[in-house]
Amino acid sequence: MADTPPSNAPAAQVMVVDDEANIRRTLAICLEGEGYRVATAAGVPEALEAAAHQHIDLAFVDLRLGSRSGLDLIPELHAANPGIRVILITAYGGIETAVQAIKRGAFDYLPKPFEPEQVKIMAQRALQARLEELRLGELDQLGVKADLVSRTPSMQKALALARQAANSDATILIRGETGTGKGVLARAIHAWSNRSGNPFAVVSCPSIPTELLESELFGHTQGSFTGAHREQLGRVAQAAGGTLFLDEIGDLPLQLQPKILRFIQEHEYERLGDPVTRRADVRVVAATHLDLKAGVLNGHFREDLYYRLNVIEIELPPLRERREDIMPMAQRMLERFAGENERPAKHFSAEVEAFLRSHDWPGNLRELSNVVERAVIFSQGPEASWANMNAELRPRSLEQRIGDPISLEALEEGHIRRVLAVHKSLEAAAQILGIDVSTLWRKRKKYGLVGEGNASLSLR
User: What are the Cα distances from residue 423, in Å, to 108, 129, 279, 430, 449?
Assistant: First the structure.
């Protein structure tokens, strides 16, 4: 059964562009049954006329529209309705055509023949992505540089939970590996909240010496300790009415944990050297890459503070579990860095794209950003190639050196993963590997590679 349509579904305007009346009628009935408003067009002129005079959120466009190609219509629809999602309907051309469509700006493609359930699910996914982009537009207006669009269910779930929790005053704990975007999400939560007009203050727990961290948090009076030459407000006071982000709270010194617990529970604190109890209306968001439960067990983290922090927990998946997001994010980074640095880079070479798709990204988004930025800065033309990449990455990621301690299965999995990332069909990948397609299909399933890389069965 399909998931519940997104909250914007009843208001969403969908257009169906197909020169076959039967297809237009079938899709219209299917989409109207889901609550969408539907317009239809038999060809390119009619579609462009409709797009010029009404806002359209989503368009289903047939590949062949008489003497015209639906591929040519995609950028024209984007020009008329910025942010529109286009799904190409195709019975021709195989995966190569689908790849062309994505490069032209299509969100996805729908192969013929199709089932009504496929149409419903695809429309829902496209409109959810559109809604998330609109939300990120709100963040950009507030100065938040976020890259939170995702097609990965686990990431979409995290974003939905963050959005839902943003307007509450509940403490939020964001968990995830280093570089997964915990700080970006914390800023997004603040920007989505009713506190967005007030300050967002950050305290990086591991980067401030223990003896100064209490002063950084709560402030101090003049002469309260050696070097305290003047009175200073802490981040708690600076964040009044807004949000205090405690980054890597797992590194918070044990002696400070009771004071943080008291502040979260009662919103009360004292500055160093001043016995006066003060209050501050501040919402706390914390983040950690550590296992706080393990910290509780080994005595490094207070159990009562852990439970107080963990009112709402949001888990950010690592980039290696978000492979369908890698290339869209990398392309957006490339465009941003090219603009900021006035460089000519427009796209990645095939070899670099294969690397980006198959690398495990232990540094997550931060590592991806660094790699793309380097590739852009040193680019000499429109293509970011291996000459512009970190030299030490290639042998580790693309070549398994003789004598490395690794099993034959791991070698096979890595080799299959890289071939799938480069070749656009299972037939081509199987030919390179010297096995038949059915064997490759079973090995993809065995190693959990289904849905990964470029390779798919050709559409016929």
Answer: 19, 27, 61, 10, 14
84 with 30, same domain: the answer is yes
Kindly state the helix (H) or strand (E) to which residue 442 belongs, with its residue range: helix 437-446
Query: What SS3 state is found at 16?
Result: strand
**Could you tell me which of 78, 31, 27 has the C-alpha nearest to residue 52?**
78
pLDDT digits (tens, 9 = 90+) for 73-103: 988 888 887 778 899 888 765 556 766 777 7
Question: Is residue 219 located within the same domain as residue 263?
Answer: yes
Beta strands in 10-162 (DSSP E): 13-17, 37-41, 58-62, 64-65, 68-69, 85-90, 108-111
Residues 333 and 373 sit within 8 Å (Cβ to Cβ):
yes
Residue 264: which CATH number?
Answer: 3.40.50.300
Report the first-to-last Cα separation within the chain, whole angstroms: 27
Three-class SS string for 204-237? EHHHCCHHHHHHHHHEECCCCCCCCCCCEECHHH
φ/ψ of residue 220, rounded to 5: -155, 165
Host domain of residue 123 = 9-134
What is the rounded distance in angstroms from the CA atom of residue 347 to the CA atom of residue 391?
19
Tell me: do 16 and 125 sit in the same domain: yes
Which tokens is 447 given? Answer: 């190693």
Peptide bond into 318 cis (omega under 30): no
Q: What distances in angstroms separate CA 91 from CA 30, 63, 88, one per listed residue?
A: 19, 8, 10
- Residue-wise pLDDT tens digits, 261-311: 999 999 999 998 889 999 999 999 999 999 999 999 999 999 999 999 999
Give me the amino acid identity at 45: P
Residue 184 CA to residue 200 CA, distance in Å, equals 12
Evaluate whether 59 touches 37 at the Cβ level (below 8 Å). no
Q: At what angle do helices 210-218 and 257-266 cross, to 10 degrees?
A: 10
pTM above threshold 0.85: no
Closest by CA position to 203, among listed 107, 287, 292, 83: 287
Q: Helix, strand, or coil here: 44?
A: helix
Kindly state the tokens that stand for 145: 């540089």
Torsion of the alpha carbons at 355, 357, 359 and 363, rounded to the nearest 10 = 120
> Does any domain span residue 415?
no
User: Cα-atom radius of gyration of the chain, to the nearest Å?
Assistant: 26
The string of DSSP letters for 231-297 reads -EE-HHHHTTTSEEEEETGGGS-GGGHHHHHHHHHH-EE--BT----EE---EEEEEESS-HHHHHH
